[in-house]
Amino acid sequence: MKYHIKNPSFAPQGKRRIEWASREMPVLKLIASRFQKEQPLKGVRVSACLHVTAETANLMKTLRAGGAEVLLCASNPLSTQDDVAAALVKEGIPVFAKRGEDRATFYRHLVAALDHHPQITMDDGGDLVYLLHTKRKSQLKQVAGSCEETTTGVIRLRAMEREGKLRLPVIDAAYIKRYVTV
Predict the structure, then answer these.
(1) Is residue 35 within 8 Å of residue 41, measured between CB atoms?
(2) Cα(137)–Cα(164) distance, integer angstroms
(3) Residue 61: pLDDT above 60?
(4) Which of 31, 32, 107, 171 is most buried (most C-beta within 10 Å)?
(5) Residues 119-135, mean pLDDT to the nearest whole number
(6) Diameter over CA atoms, the chain
(7) DSSP per-residue letters across 24-46
(8) Phi then psi for 75, rounded to 5 degrees?
(9) CB under 8 Å to 91, separation ≥6 — which residues?
């Protein structure tokens, strides 16, 4: 398994952080349990460019429980929790993220996420979708869709749509969050 993280020895601390966050995410736990039984994502490759945090780690573990082959890269190098990245790698989830990574490393990590040949992408800022539409156009046909979670990313993608350049369906999770209350 390929990955690029700061230090694998940080894994025990990251595992504790992920477990702590899991206790505050009961709905995701229920989904993971159901996914484990039903395997609705069996064999689906998912590349996610999100904040590498304990909460995101639980999402990645849930997708994997559902059978998905997941890979995570950082959408924001300043929010990356290096211990969480190490814990995910130890559990067999490829992660490409380092707190404070420079622009060139960030770009290499995006490329690594697309080298995973995802069928679904998850974005925080639209970086994977943008790269698919510019330097990785040959991969567009294999991507069934994407999910964007930020208003900034949605604005970027809507501009692409207005220009007639958006070539895959994207779920606007930022919009959903504004209108769904628990």
Answers:
(1) yes
(2) 15
(3) yes
(4) 32
(5) 96
(6) 47
(7) T-HHHHHHHHHHHHH-TTTT-EE
(8) -90, -20
(9) 61
